[in-house]
Design a protein that fits this description.
The complex is a heterodimer. The longest helix of chain A has 25 residues. By secondary structure, chain A is α/β, with parallel strands linked by helices. In chain A, a hairpin with a 3-residue loop joins strand 4 and strand 5. In chain A, helix 5 crosses helix 11. The N terminus of chain A is likely disordered. In chain A, the strands form three sheets. In chain A, strands 5-4-3-6-7-10 form a six-stranded mixed sheet, sandwiched between helices. Chain A has a two-stranded antiparallel ribbon with strand order 1-2. The two termini of chain A are 29 Å apart. Chain B has a nine-stranded mixed sheet with strand order 20-19-21-22-29-28-27-24-25, with helices on both faces. In chain B, strands 9-8-5-10-11-37 form a six-stranded mixed sheet, with helices on both faces. A four-stranded antiparallel sheet of chain B has the order 1-2-4-38. Chain B contains 15 helices and 38 strands. The chains are: A alpha/beta, B alpha+beta. Chains A and B meet through strand 8, strand 9 and helix 10 of A and strand 3 and helix 2 of B. Strand 8 of chain A pairs parallel with strand 3 of chain B, so a sheet runs across the interface.
């Protein structure tokens, strides 16, 4: 077993990767549920057979095989030529694609604007001290937006990857490919990723299909794509793009991030709903609509799941109400659903 | 009243309340605006889910809004008082002016209490509703006719100004009179005939059978326009039980101060069960007497109060039932009478009264033997040459030897007879055939029981004739015992009249021995004329010298004495007519007639009748005592009571009445008071109950829908 490197040192200046989170992640090892094909030797299982120490299988010799691969001991016992196969362990290059569309900014009915903490400090300072302290020490990500949640997940995975000497890159999908940071394996690179996440404000549409196509051209072959999105875009173009991505020998994992309100609609009797991206308005009796909506969402998610699994892509539906670490644990400890 | 095809609104101003429809509309709009705005990540799924739900939701809200508006509209309409007009009433809906005559019964019986409420109040309220709801203000014309003894219209002609009618209606109280419905209907017909267009006659009455029965007898007394629609609005409840006092009288009718008298009256039970009560008599200022009486259902019982001694003068007797029953006005009757020391008897004679032997000489002494207060009768001697005195209070009229009777005397004698007086004509030396012929001529038929022809004188032949036969069992001669009969038949008569003609209806009381009628009587009007074929004059026999003559004269007076009081009581609503018992002082102030409330009756008129005063007033407005005053003096007194027929509160059969009225009108309908109260318009059905029910159903439907939808969407 390769020895794990020492615990990386992180500072608390990053919004999406905090020391308390690192403590929870230290025992985790990120690995895709399917074998990867790396360029260099690493610790990840690969479909390639190579020259590692892990025996895999025998097969009969065929002309053209390396003579050195023949197991002469077997030949001595059986007078037949067999080639000894070993497992190939590869390193892993992961591309984290985060949907930064406006819909990802939703954090529920009670969310405050981005500058709320500052405003809160200004008026909280006039309140009694104890209360001000308690409010001031509250976790700003206690009620994360979907983008925050996606970034938390992505940062944790990046941290795990870098800690296990894999490579991680970041792509921001905002009206296509907005930012692309190639995958690298240093913690300096990790800080760059975190800064990029923090400096990005969700807005507009994501256009994931275009972003995936652009990413596929830049990402090269045999890498892993992890997509964080609410997938409120036409399904077919995204599936086509993902299929094309996979066709190039890449592997894809989708984290379908939804807010709790999107599962059962906000707890309001009636409301005027405005689409965060299109501005469409709709007057609704929420209570009347809830059951139909939930059925429709169930069908929607089932459709995505079936379509992705059919293409060998993991589909994970996560709610912002669930701590992201638990989501990560659940993903890593669950066996892969293979086609 | 606003008319909408077959539906009419009795209070159209209430439609202003439809402005309240803005409340649910405003609430609906405000509710829409008050919705919270949520910026949601994507409406992709919501749009797909809400594609049908949103339309359904909007439809549901519109349905709820419609139900609320419907409920509000129905409530406002209910307050507007909608009524459904039947086919005929709906035909009146066009704005063609209609004439409405409201005939309101104000007779004494409407003072009855129905379930504790005065019937007059119920009828008045019903009349008010007719004016308020049935008559279109400013379009229709109307009038109000008060049906009492003398029906009268509130306005001289039909008018579209309803305010005076409504104001008059508020002041109307039941009278103590009996209504004259034929006259009231005639007045109504006159009012309606002056209008061109639909005509309505609304009759509000207790429909007392004894009163409305006049209509069936006198239906020809009025003629309504043929197209008149008559609406009968009777009282709803059954006629209540009633005890009544009636027919107060004193016996003898002209009591003497020295003799006993009895006050009698009738207690009538107008109910289906026996009734016991106490009757109280209050005579002048004396302590009241009372007695308890029980009377069977639908029966009348005579009650008597004995009076031991009555002072001379006028007396007021008031009899009351202290108990309260349905009709209080007939629980009290009044009786006025005059007690005199002696009964006046008028003697008409031209022969010298103080010359012994004349007929008048003996007659006056037979009437008043003592010539003082010990006598029962007071003889008032008059001659044919003098004026005719008042005869109303005399006990009898004796006509002795006279000359030819002047016409005034003839008329006075005939009137006296017609009104129930008794006249005795003594057949002495007078032109008796001529006088009786004049009386027959004035009457138009034979007045006397027999007609004399010639005078027969038996003295010339020294003979005499004695009374031979007598109808001793007749009321006239029954008091004569055997000794008196013998004494009478022992008297010799020397001169008598031969009989020319004997009337068949004449009753012969005495005959001479030869069969010639000696004393016979015949009825004339309510009175009786007795013609004697003898006289007490000495020239005619020895009758005047015998004491039995005195007995005969007194018995004649007792037989002829009128059974009616000298001053019969008046009936409320009818004219007051009586003659004062005290003479008018020529130098005194003008006489006045005071009503029971001691207010002068301005319409009373007076005329001199000898020394007395004849009083007349068109009608007695109330029950009680009426006194004629001249300054501080009271000249006469009479009493007025309500018509006893008003006490019988039973209702007439409306079908029978309707049939009687159908000859006069195109349609006669009946509507109960309760129905009229609820509808406000005859021939219409109230709809506001349905409106409120509809509003309730709309609200209940809204609640059910909300509950249903809420339950469906609950998890």
């Amino acid at each position: 077993m390769p020895q794990l490197p020492a615990q990386p040192r992180t500072d608390s200046g990053h919004r999406y990767l905090r020391p308390q989170d690192l403590r929870r992640l230290r025992h985790l090892f990120f690995a895709p549920r399917r074998p990867v094909e790396g360029r260099y030797a690493g610790r990840h299982a690969s479909t390639q057979r190579g020259h590692s120490v892990e025996f895999n299988d025998y097969r009969p010799y065929v002309p053209g095989d390396e003579i050195s691969d023949i197991d002469w001991k077997v030949y001595g016992r059986s007078d037949r030529l067999f080639i000894k196969l070993f497992e190939h362990q590869a390193d892993m290059s992961v591309h984290l694609l985060i949907d930064a569309s406006a819909s990802m900014a939703y954090r529920g009915l009670d969310h405050k604007p981005a500058d709320t903490p500052l405003r809160a400090e200004s008026w909280l300072s006039q309140l009694p001290r104890v209360r001000t302290r308690r409010r001031a020490t509250a976790d700003p990500l206690a009620n994360p937006s979907k983008y925050d949640y996606a970034c938390l997940l992505a940062a944790a995975i990046a941290f795990l990857l870098l800690r296990q000497q894999d490579k991680a890159g970041l792509t921001i999908a905002q009206t296509g490919l907005a930012r692309f940071i190639p995958s690298q394996g240093s913690f300096t690179h990790l800080r760059q990723l975190l800064r990029t996440m923090e400096h990005t404000q969700p807005a507009g549409e994501a256009n994931l299909a275009q972003a995936l196509e652009q990413l596929a051209r830049r990402a090269g072959r045999r890498s892993v794509l992890i997509l964080f999105s609410d997938l409120y875009e036409p399904r077919e173009p995204i599936l086509r793009a993902l299929a094309a991505f996979a066709h190039r020998g890449n592997q894809a994992i989708v984290f379908h991030v939804l807010h709790a309100d999107e599962f059962h609609l906000p707890d309001l009797p009636q409301a005027m709903f405005i689409d965060s991206e299109t501005g469409q308005r709709l007057r609704l009796n929420v209570a009347e609509l809830r059951r139909t909506y939930q059925e429709r969402l169930k069908q929607h998610l089932a459709g995505w799941s079936a379509a992705l699994l059919a293409r060998g892509i993991d589909h994970n539906v996560v709610s912002t109400a669930t701590p992201y670490a638990r989501v990560l644990e659940r993903y890593l400890f669950r066996p892969a659903r293979m086609r | 009243m606003l008319a909408l095809a077959a539906i009419s609104l009795t209070a159209p101003l209430m439609l202003l309340g439809l402005g309240m429809l803005g409340l649910p509309l405003a609430a609906h709009l405000l509710h829409r605006r008050a919705r919270r705005v949520v910026v949601f990540p994507s409406l992709l799924l919501i749009t797909q889910s809400a594609a049908s739900q949103s339309r359904l939701f909007r439809l549901r809200h519109l349905l709820l809004l419609a139900l609320r508006c419907l409920a509000m509209t129905l409530i406002v309409l209910a307050f507007a008082g909608p009524v459904w007009l039947d086919e005929e009433a709906a035909s009146l809906a066009p704005q063609q002016p209609a004439a409405w005559v409201v005939l309101l019964d104000t007779s004494a019986s409407t003072a009855q209490h129905v379930d504790g409420v005065p019937a007059a109040q119920l009828l008045r309220a019903a009349a008010q509703r007719v004016l308020n709801h049935s008559v279109q203000p400013g379009v229709d014309v109307a009038n109000l006719i008060l049906a009492a003894a003398q029906p009268q219209a509130v306005l001289p002609a039909m008018s579209n100004n309803l305010q005076p009618l409504q104001a008059a209606l508020a002041d109307i109280e039941p009278t103590a009179q009996r209504a004259d419905f034929p006259t009231a209907l005639a007045l109504s017909a006159q009012m309606l005939a002056a209008h061109q267009g639909p005509r309505h006659l609304v009759i509000l009455s207790d429909f007392q059978a004894t009163n409305w029965a006049d209509l069936t007898n006198r239906s020809a007394a009025f003629t309504l326009p043929a197209d008149t629609r008559i609406h009968l609005i009777p009282l709803d409840a059954a006629p209540p039980s009633n005890l009544a006092l009636a027919e107060p009288a004193i016996s003898p009718p002209r009591p003497l101060a020295t003799s006993a008298a009895v006050i009698t009256l009738s207690l009538v039970n107008h109910s289906p069960r026996p009734q016991a009560t106490r009757i109280e008599l209050r005579l002048d200022d004396q302590p009241p007497q009372s007695q308890s009486v029980t009377v069977d259902p639908w029966q009348k019982r005579q009650v008597a109060f004995e009076l031991a001694a009555i002072p001379i003068g006028r007396h007021r007797a008031q009899l009351t039932i202290p108990d309260h029953d349905a009709l209080a006005i007939d629980n009290r009757v009044f009786l006025a009478f005059h007690a005199s020391a002696r009964l006046p008897v008028l003697v008409l004679a031209d022969d010298p009264p103080h010359e012994p032997g004349t007929s008048t000489y003996f007659l006056l002494r037979a009437l008043a033997p003592f010539q003082d207060d010990r006598d029962t009768f007071e003889a008032r001697l008059h001659t044919t040459r003098g004026p005719v005195p008042p005869l109303h209070d005399i006990a009898a009229l004796f006509i002795s030897d006279t000359s030819a009777w002047p016409e005034p005397w003839l008329r006075a004698v005939l009137d006296y007879l017609q009104q129930g007086g008794g006249v005795v004509i003594l057949g002495g030396d007078s032109p008796l055939p001529q006088n009786l012929a004049a009386l027959d001529q004035l009457l138009g038929r034979a007045a006397s029981p027999w007609l004399p022809s010639t005078r027969r004188n038996l003295a010339a032949s020294h003979r005499a004739l004695f009374l031979g036969q007598g109808d001793w069992t007749s009321p006239l001669l029954e008091p004569f015992d055997l000794a008196s009969q013998q004494a009478l038949t022992a008297i010799p008569f020397t001169r008598l009249w031969n009989i020319a003609d004997l009337r068949p209806e004449a009753q012969i009381h005495l005959r001479f021995a030869d069969g010639t009628p000696a004393l016979a009587s015949a009825p004339i009007g309510a009175g009786r004329l007795i013609l004697a074929n003898f006289s007490p004059a000495l020239a005619d026999g020895d009758l005047g010298k015998h004491g039995v003559f005195v007995a005969l004269v007194h018995q004649l007076i007792a037989y002829l004495q009128p059974k009616q009081p000298a001053q019969p009581a008046s009936i409320v609503g009818r004219p007051i007519t009586f003659i004062t018992d005290a003479p008018l002082q020529a130098a005194g102030p003008a006489p006045i007639l005071l009503d029971p409330a001691h207010q002068p009756l301005p319409e009373a008129s007076f005329s001199l009748l000898g020394e007395s005063l004849a009083v007349w007033a068109p009608r007695a407005p109330a029950a009680g005592f009426y006194a004629v005053r001249q300054g501080d003096r009271t000249l006469g007194l009479t009493a007025a009571n309500i018509d006893p027929r008003e006490s019988d509160l039973r209702r007439i059969d409306l079908d029978q009445l309707r049939q009687a009225l159908l000859h006069q009108a195109s349609q006669v309908s009946t509507q109960t008071l309760a129905a009229q109260e609820s509808s406000g318009r005859p021939q219409s059905k109230p709809l506001w109950g349905w409106m409120l029910a509809g509003a309730g159903i709309a609200l209940a439907g809204e609640m059910l829908l909300i509950h249903h939808w809420t339950r469906r969407r609950a998890p």
